[in-house]
Amino acid sequence: MNNYRVAILAVIILIILFAGAYFIYQKQTGNNIPTFEASPSTSPEITLPSPTTPAPQTSTGPQVNEQPQSGSDTVEVKNIGIKVDQPEGSSIISSPLTVSGSANVFEGKIIINILDSTGHVLGSSQATACMSYDACPFQTSINFASPSTGAGTIEIYNPSGVDGSPHYLQSILVRF
């Protein structure tokens, strides 16, 4: 009979231990569930500027970084825009002209126009760069008509996907 009582007591103790372990497990997993609460008084309204307008500067209140911390699973896009390496400003150019640089723009499309000082288009071409995490090189050769003026401009830009307007416009003053 004594062995029967010891066995029943051992089963009761094991049930209490398992119930306690289960209770502790439930309490720990319940505390690890993230809750996202936004308070209107502390959450700033975020507006993204377009590529052609500068970002608004605010001087009231602390700046809140809404971006994920470094090392997260996001990718940082660098060198957005167009950088022209050749030709340099105020240089003397002749046809055919080689234009080169690097760009990271929408659809990787670059438009190059050579204009005289009156705004007349003397020549035009397209180049392909990239739309990636970082800028990549582009180069094209442009044949252009004889200018009637001694100076002009090379316009290099990425056309908008909406209306074709120039984004990241680079204007280089040149001589003929």
Description of the structure:
With 176 residues, the chain is of the alpha+beta class. It has 2 domains: 1-32; 81-175, Immunoglobulin-like (Sandwich), CATH 2.60.40. 17% of the residues lie in helices and 32% in strands. It has one helix spanning 2-31; strands at residues 81-86, 97-104, 109-116, 121-128, 136-142, 151-159, 166-175. The strands form 2 sheets. Strands 4-3-6-7 form a 4-stranded antiparallel β-sheet, with no helix packed on it. The chain is rod-shaped. It starts with a helix and ends with a strand.
Shape: rod-shaped
Helicity range: 10-25%
Identify the strand order in the major beta sheet: 4-3-6-7
- Uncertain runs are 34-50, 53-72
Question: How many distinct beta strands?
Answer: 7
Structural class by secondary-structure content: alpha+beta
Predict the CATH topology of the largest domain.
Immunoglobulin-like
The CATH class of the largest domain is identified as Mainly Beta
Nutshell version of this structure?
The longest helix has 30 residues, at 2-31. It is rod-shaped and about 120 Å long.
Give descriptors for this structure.
176 residues, alpha+beta, Immunoglobulin-like, 2 domains, 4-stranded antiparallel beta sheet, 3-stranded antiparallel beta sheet, 1 helix, 7 strands, rod-shaped
